[in-house]
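4.2 Preliminary Data

To establish feasibility before requesting continued support, the project team ran the inverse folding procedure on a target of 231 residues. The structure was first converted into the token representation described in Section 3, and no sequence information of any kind was made available to the design step. The complete token record follows.
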């Protein structure tokens, strides 16, 4: 797992951070069971989840996913904390939420806790009047969140490594904008069925070549890392 923390071979393109994503899927491509990705997870998958957070500057997530999964402000395990500090990183990555509607429930767990307030990226057209305290707002785009502008804005904050945790709609937008550099894909050994299929759900058809970077197996689950092949 320690190799996942190595930032030295993740060289960001000019003007933006290196963007990696961590997703879990069933054998038949479902990204959730009973509406939650955690239902497909395993102990090894959860270890990868926490290790990748230990390497990231920010955790990027869509507002819908943050609501469904009841997101909290990211923390770092005691094991990984010294590694972050020795690398000059803050004690935990900052949560960055992408939202068009700015529908943030008053009982959303990430509104409170240790660390900096989450950053919420939204378009200029969003109504900010009902947003509860506990977040920082930043407009990036006119009617939709402009992810290229968002990545450039985060880069201006000093962010060099972004970890996207979904959902599939946000991941599809990153793919469509050619912003995804690295994908960690956990394949759970179950056939799920249902309609929640495709980890880049809703993205336009767009074949982006990938190179298999790592692969390993644990108790029937398959863990794959792909990196985007740039022209």
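Position-by-position output of the design step:
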């Amino acid at each position: 797992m320690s190799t996942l923390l190595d930032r030295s071979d993740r060289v960001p393109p000019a003007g933006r951070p290196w963007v990696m994503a961590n997703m879990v899927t069933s054998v038949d491509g479902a990204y959730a069971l009973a509406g939650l990705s955690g239902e497909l997870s395993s102990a090894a998958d959860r270890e990868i989840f926490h290790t990748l957070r230990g390497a990231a500057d920010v955790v990027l997530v869509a507002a819908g996913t943050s609501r469904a999964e009841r997101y909290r402000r990211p923390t770092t395990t005691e094991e990984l904390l010294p590694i972050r500090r020795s690398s000059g990183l803050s004690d935990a990555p900052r949560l960055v939420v992408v939202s068009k509607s700015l529908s943030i429930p008053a009982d959303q767990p990430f509104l409170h806790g240790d660390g900096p307030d989450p950053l919420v990226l939204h378009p200029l057209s969003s109504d900010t009047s009902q947003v509860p305290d506990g977040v920082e707002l930043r407009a990036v785009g006119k009617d939709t969140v402009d992810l290229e502008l968002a990545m450039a804005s985060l880069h201006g904050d000093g962010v060099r490594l972004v970890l996207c945790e979904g959902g599939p709609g946000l991941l599809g937008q990153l793919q469509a904008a050619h912003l995804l550099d690295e994908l960690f894909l956990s394949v759970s050994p179950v056939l799920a069925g249902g309609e929640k299929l495709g980890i880049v759900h809703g993205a336009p058809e767009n074949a982006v070549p990938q190179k298999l970077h790592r692969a390993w197996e644990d108790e029937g689950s398959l863990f794959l890392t792909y990196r985007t092949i740039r022209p």
